[in-house]
Amino acid sequence: MKLVFLLIFTLLFVNNSNSLIDYEKLKNFKILSIANDTIKFRSILKKNTMIIFYNNYSCADCLKNLISSSKTTYKNQFNIVMIIRSDENIVSRKIDLTRVNNKFKIKKILFDCNKGIDSWPPKNLEGGLFGFFKIEKTPAVLMCINFNKIHYFSYEKLSSNNFLIENLINNSDEQNP
Questions:
Q1: Strand pairing of 48-54 and 140-145?
Q2: Can you give the pTM of this predicted structure?
Q3: Does 96 score more than 70 pLDDT?
Q4: Which is nearest to 157 in space by CA: 29, 72, 62?
């Protein structure tokens, strides 16, 4: 019986890279708003939410195409949120925010802050959502669909599908929290 439970648990919580996702830990991550308020990650996991992860190690054209195609494809279906990896320094966050606002028109922007300085390139990030998903290059995407399906797509997965998320969703392994 224990083996059956372990097998079912493993099948339900395995992400695209075949590592175990601890959904309870994921939803309790804390992120910062533009106003410097600390909020729990679960508060942005609305019915249909598309979270775009962004850091300084990114493909700007890829991100622009992803945002453009997502706004066209999911115009009123998904709440689009961008989470930027930044350090805890408010000046750094303002610089990152200005850079993103000048390039991409995203209404909801949040920060995944790191207490220390991230390695470069960011291969072994620790802490925060970027560390949790082991995000190196961006854009990367997390989609929450109808509260019960979570899809995570790394930069590599997105780039191999020309950043067309609808193709990935139809052919992906999903997480059921």
A1: antiparallel
A2: 0.79
A3: yes
A4: 62
CB atoms within 10 A of CB 90: 13
19 band by pLDDT with thresholds 50, 70 and 90? very low
**pLDDT 10s digits, 28-79:** 788 989 888 999 888 887 778 889 999 888 888 888 888 888 877 777 788 8
Q: Under a CB-based contact definition with an 8 Å cutoff, are residues 130 and 112 in contact? A: yes
**In which region does residue 127 sit, left (phi positive, over 0), alpha (psi from -120 to 50) or beta (all else)?**
left
Q: Confirm if 62 and 137 have CB atoms less than 8 A apart.
A: no
Rounded (10°) CA dihedral 29, 165, 125, 91: -70
Position 117: which residue type? I
Q: Collapsing DSSP states into helix, strand and coil, what is residue 56?
A: coil
Q: Please name the residue that has the structure tokens 């019915």.
A: 47
Structure tokens at 130: 């970027």
Backbone angles phi, psi at 109, to 5 degrees: -125, 135
Angle between helices 60-73 and 90-103 (to 10 degrees): 60
